[in-house]
Amino acid sequence: xxxxGKRNFIIxxxxxxxxxxxxxxxxxxxVDPFFHYHAPLKDFPYVVDDQVDMNPGLAAHMDYDSVLLGxxxxxxxxxxxxxxxxxxxxxxxxxxxxxxxxxxxxxxKIFNAKGDDVKRVFLGIDELNYSSDINQTKFPVTDYIxxxxxxxxxxxxxxxxxxxxxxxxxxxDRSDASEWNMIYxxxxxxxxxNLANVRLYYTPAPEVIDTTPTEEYIAGIEANxxxxxxxxxxxxxxxxxxxxxxxxxxxxxYDAYRxxxxxxxxxxxxxxxxxxxxxxxVEVYFFQxxxxxxxNFDNYADHTHYSPEVCHYMVDCMSQGKRKVxxxxxxxxxxxxxxxxxxxxxxxxxx
Length: 351
Fold this sequence. Notes:
The chain is an alpha/beta fold and 351 residues long. It is built from 14 helices and 6 strands.
């Protein structure tokens, strides 16, 4: 091979390698399936199914004036309902199994992007997770997604899974494209919401009495509120925080009954609610003692996850101020909860 031939071969090889690197990175950057750099392209069939990796980009680049935060108890909400009933353009940013730290991390992203333009934060709180370590997250955060270091974006731009599953595959098969108002929606269909389906997933908790002092639970809640929730409430007084406690089915309370936890859970709600209601920009909605919801297994696919119809009902309540708990009626609501949990005829369920 002549010298010119060698040189041309090397140039061609370098060009081929460069193209091989540049093309996939460009495809990922242009489509940006995790919304790391920009808002979604208008006509691309995005598959939005990775809460940990996609929520930061959604928080940074979507057009919204309110957000829906919480665990899997929030995934069945249709965000169009918030617009129809309250005139709010709401972005769903759920984390399955969310801990308070998960909420703090995403609220950082939300307020860094939108500041005081956020009119309302709808926050579903699962009392069980609020006694956890203040730094615990459900899943590890992805460094190149959550930090501002451009150099580690190589893990995103040259990521085979991102390229194949979120750029190329949707172009080939658009059937899995997500509806923006129902991102992260559960797989359950209407026929799955019934007692027979609930039975498939439910085993009664062992009858082992919980000996953890209530004060220990309360201390964990206090620490989490102080570290992960209250700072945002205080920093954004013009943003209304609409807190709601998801209505688990009566079987959740059967487990609590079997383990001597009913009073402890009620005390946790009591402390948390009183603490949150110290702030003028917080309102709290209480659904746990709503027997029409909680005791109707046609509302549930398992012993905690409820149907979209229940979600719509909660939006109706929040838009009209129904089922709102205040300092004046909190004791009454908690008494009704305990009366239901202690006196329900659990044997009638035929487990």
